Amino acid sequence: MKDALDLPELKVPKWPFFVATGFMLGLSYFLFYYQAKWPLTGWEMIACMVCVTLGEVLWILPYLLEYRAIIKYGALVKLIETSSLREATDKIQNLEHCVAKISSASDQLSSVQEQADKTTNLAHDITERMAKEVREFTAFMHKANDGEKSTLRLELEKFRRAENEWLNTSVFTLDHIFALNRAASRSGQPNLVTQLTHFQDACRDAARRVGLVPVLAATGEAFDEKRHQLPEGQMATAGSTVLEMIATGYTFQGKLIRPTLVQLEEEAKPAAITDQKPSQLNFETKDTSI
Asked: What end-to-end distance do the CA atoms of the chain give, in Å?
């Protein structure tokens, strides 16, 4: 209310009413003292009373109008405050609903966070288990691989030794067949020579099928240090030619394993030829890494 009294919009201008009041009072004074005759008549008394009454009403009227405006303003303010209070109450209720929803969402988020933590821990445990199993499996595979390599290496060594023994045996047999053929050639018996020659060719064909090929040297052929070898104590000179093949050379799967033992023409000695024996094969087992 005190604020409403200070508002200029609610104040009613009073000077027109005061002027009208003064006019009415002046009119009643004029009628009472100057125009009336004693004793006053009835209409003169009534006119004076009406003027005085109107003056008083005009004097009180602005205050009544101002009070009425203030009362209406107060009612309007109360209505506005009530409406605002109602709106504020609705907003507070909506806010409470929002708070409840936020609280529910927070609870759900906490539950989701807990589930996520559990899932993360479970995934971490599974990862550790998988890593452990991978390490164990890798160690097992390394051990198995090492064992398999050792087994394969041992089998390969056995195969190399068996191959070496087989080659030595085959070459030893072919050398004896070659010696028999030479002895038959020196005996002067054509039938025996023919039979032993066929037998030697058949044995060489059988050995050729598994990669063991004889290396021969023809009479008059130029001496080659890579394919030929000489008996002990003999040296080759420039332009030396082969007189006779003492022992057959051999290649195994394209690799020369023993050169052909030959006798040169300028150093021919019958005793050396008959007494000379072919050198023993010496195969080295290759160390194959697996």
From this structure: 109
Give the count of domains, the chain: 2
Q: What is the pLDDT of residue 266?
A: 67
Tokens 């050398």 belong to residue: 175
Greatest extent of the chain over all pairs of C-alpha atoms, in Å: 212
Domain boundary among 57, 76, 103: 103
* Mean pLDDT to the nearest integer, 161-186: 86
Outline where the chain has alpha helix (H): 2-5, 15-29, 42-187, 190-209, 270-275
Q: What is the pLDDT of residue 130?
A: 92
Residue 267: domain span: 211-281
Distance CA 166, CA 252 (A): 12
Buried/exposed code over 49-64 (b: 16+ C-beta within 10 A; e: otherwise): eebbebbeebbeebee
Instruction: Give pLDDT, residue 277.
Output: 53
Residue of 221 and 9 predicted with greater confidence: 221
User: How large is the C-alpha radius of gyration of the chain?
Assistant: 72
- Domain C-terminal end among 54, 82, 103: 103
Place of tokens 């409470």: 96
